[in-house]
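Teaching assistant here, posting this on the class forum so everyone can see the example we discussed in section. The complex has four components, and the goal was to see what a joint structure prediction looks like when all of them are supplied at once.
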Amino acid sequence: MLAEDRLNTIVSMVQQAGSVTVPELADALGVTASTIRRDLQTLDRAHRIAKVHGGATSLERAHVTRDLTISERSDLHNDDKERICARAAALVEPESFVYIDSGSTTLRLIEHLPHLESVTYVTDSVLHAQHLAVRGMRTVVLGGELKPETEALVGPDALATLDRYNFNCGFWGSNGVAAEQGFTTPDIEEAQVKRISMRHTAKRFVISDASKFGMVAPVKFADFRDATIITAGEVPAKYQSMDNVITV
Amino acid sequence: MLAEDRLNTIVSMVQQAGSVTVPELADALGVTASTIRRDLQTLDRAHRIAKVHGGATSLERAHVTRDLTISERSDLHNDDKERICARAAALVEPESFVYIDSGSTTLRLIEHLPHLESVTYVTDSVLHAQHLAVRGMRTVVLGGELKPETEALVGPDALATLDRYNFNCGFWGSNGVAAEQGFTTPDIEEAQVKRISMRHTAKRFVISDASKFGMVAPVKFADFRDATIITAGEVPAKYQSMDNVITV
DNA sequence: TGATTAGTGCGCATTTGTGCGTATTTGCGT
DNA sequence: ACGCAAATACGCACAAATGCGCACTAATCA
């Protein structure tokens, strides 16, 4: 087996299961733990997965705190995320001006977005912008400083550009979703962009899988009531009854 | 069996299987591993497959480790371009604010840029920005609408951002270089960005191989005297004596 | 016919990838 | 706060893969 293939397999396994341990990978691929660790290191550097103590997790699950263990591992299903994205994408109306936040969940969303001629998509992520442009969407990118880890744009230029726009609707990811602490993210600068972009959007949607409920990341960017949450899977009972939570 | 046929067979095999090893190919085609390696090298340069350690994979699968380095070796002016870029990159001084125009020549330039801590690079190309960020440079992206073909940002947002900046030096590509018609490019919107960015830059450099001299594209973005040209190869005699032309 | 050139195989030095042992760090329970 | 077990990083050895120079062959052309 080619080393390259092994790397691809690891990525698929991580994506599908949400998280995998080093021994699991070593066993499945017939190589030693040392090799797996080296592979995880390369993949982490390439931003394909997130390396954590004990193994690896998919990127979206990694950012709650900078270092989480494999201890809690609710195997999140790809199906959930697909359904969430499909539901969210259906909310985009013709003739509208739509904001797309950076992050891996919203990246998945792009695949489901309608191909309406009259819609303009605005994003703070160069990666998302490329995907939108490739699919033939009318795409606008915020300016600003490029953060290498997330490929997101931050800083005064990004905020200044946002101040000139008003969106019909927008979609955000969130590392933490909690009734009291609201929507939270690990990065201060990115939080600022999220906050300002939300302020300029009429219909605000946070797309998030069930595992984010109850999680709290360092920086808050919106109150829990500020957006409608589109989610799927085993949402804690406390949140199920709330009228701004849509479970698909 | 013709060498050309062998190359085609390799491509089909890679496409079909996703990935193959060198011994597999050598065995299947009845040639030695050396020949296969040479073939893979050829096919990789032609961007028909991706050569990896131990064999080859199809291009779609290749994005795991595939570096962001540009390998346009098929280019005839390769040596020239390398020399031009090396010379241009040496012009970047510490503590400076540098503008990098979009285009394939400037993309090549990025590989040669010095890793000075204090330098900030600003670009209108999301592709260039990614390359800069990957290399650990402090990178700023103009906002604006993303043109899918060139991955360049254009429109009022790009221009508005430029109006807030003043660069120490900047590097532009140009489709046409002529004494009378100046620097020219095919796209109106990109010409605008080039024009305004030049207006905000103290030391302006156009990097261009010899083949562009005498060419004229539809839209002019600067006078011939507005920038110093860094070039190489067989520059027409008329231009060689000009004091804003540096031949390396 | 003789010279030239592209393509191929082979040997060798170098680079790259892998596994293993050991020292160090990390996480977790007491 | 502390200690223990697991996980990790690091250095080393070995094997595989690679790149390069050289020799040989076949086709092309003067």
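For the discussion questions: The first helix of chain B runs from residue 3 to 17. Residues 63-77 of chain B have pLDDT under 50 and may be disordered. Think about how each of these relates to the inputs above.
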